[in-house]
Amino acid sequence: MTDLDLRELQGTEFPVPADLQGNVAITSLSKIYNWSRKNSVWPMLFGLACCAIEMIATAASRYDLSRFGMEVMRASPRQADLMIVSGTVTKKMVVPIVRLYNQMPEPKYVLAMGACASGGGPFKEGYNVVSGIDKYLPVDVYAPGCPPTPQALLFALIALHRKIDGQSLANMDDVPWYGVGPSDPTPIPILGPDIIDPRQMDIIRRQAELAAAGLPYGKREVPDLVLTAGAASTSAPRTAAEKAADKVASAPAAAAADDPEKAARLAKREAALARKRARQQQQSE
């Protein structure tokens, strides 16, 4: 604690005399909470491809991750709160990656390192490569490059620090692990002839039912036009395929209605997301 600069924690409207700023800090609980978390982020020790070599170089003495309190790379997901996806994500490896993510305690963050982890990279058209880990995990920070240099990874880690530092304990949307209840685990992809995301099972099932009924499926449909006041309705009557699709799409909502507790939890989450989107739109304006 002798090297602690209390001026980093000064974040209040109450002024502190200049001669006391090194000894006294007037700040908020969120500031202290975020300061402690961002300076003790423990990455999980695993690598996938060539980006892992750059990650190892970042941990060497030349760049010194210990300056940011991140030199403790844990081999167990139970003790890590940052997953650095460094390298090409294949369909075989995305299954254990999601399983490891579910084993990490909250709060937890994901950093997509390199072009392959961010969007597939030069292997995007490969039959065995996932076009971005963000299709299966929520990514907080992207580090572009093929591979990114250690300086680029350090910049991405500093960006993650800034994101953590901007969270507030008073806003449950920023700290959902203290909010509406335990979060549901991320569905583990199913590895078969091709990778299947369980979150898309309703779409796959709907297309299979349409195909079994001999109806067109897999087509991009033009949404209904928004009619202005006084305008005549020009929409055609709904086809049997559209009615069947609506019936299949309403199945998840009916399943949630059978469980009142789950329905209430989902409603709270939707309300929190709506407030977060509204606040982001106000900030962008």
Task: Provide a descriptive summary of the structure in words.
By secondary structure, the protein is mainly alpha-helical. It folds into three domains: 6-38, no CATH class; 51-157, Rossmann fold, CATH 3.40.50.12280; 190-217 and 241-284, no CATH class. Helix content is 37%, strand content 6%. It is built from nine helices and five strands. It has helices at 29-38, 51-58, 94-103, 114-119, 150-165, 201-212, 240-249, 251-258, 260-284; strands at 82-86, 109-113, 141-143, 190-191, 195-196. The strands form two sheets. A three-stranded parallel beta sheet has the order 1-2-3. β1, α3 and β2 (109-113) form a beta-alpha-beta unit. α1 runs antiparallel to α5 and α2 crosses α5 (150-165). The longest helix has 25 residues, at 260-284. Residues 225-235 have low confidence and may be disordered.
The CATH class of the largest domain turns out to be Alpha Beta
The count of DSSP E runs of length 2 or more, i.e. the number of strands, is 5
So, CATH architecture of the largest domain? 3-Layer(aba) Sandwich
Give the percentage of residues in beta strands.
5-15%
- Treating each run of at least 4 consecutive H or I residues as one helix, how many helices? 9
Query: In terms of quaternary structure, what is this?
Result: single chain
| Global outline | globular
Question: If strands are numbered along the chain, what order do they take across the biggest sheet?
Answer: 1-2-3
Helix content: 25-40%
The CATH topology of the largest domain turns out to be Rossmann fold
Low-confidence stretches: 225-235
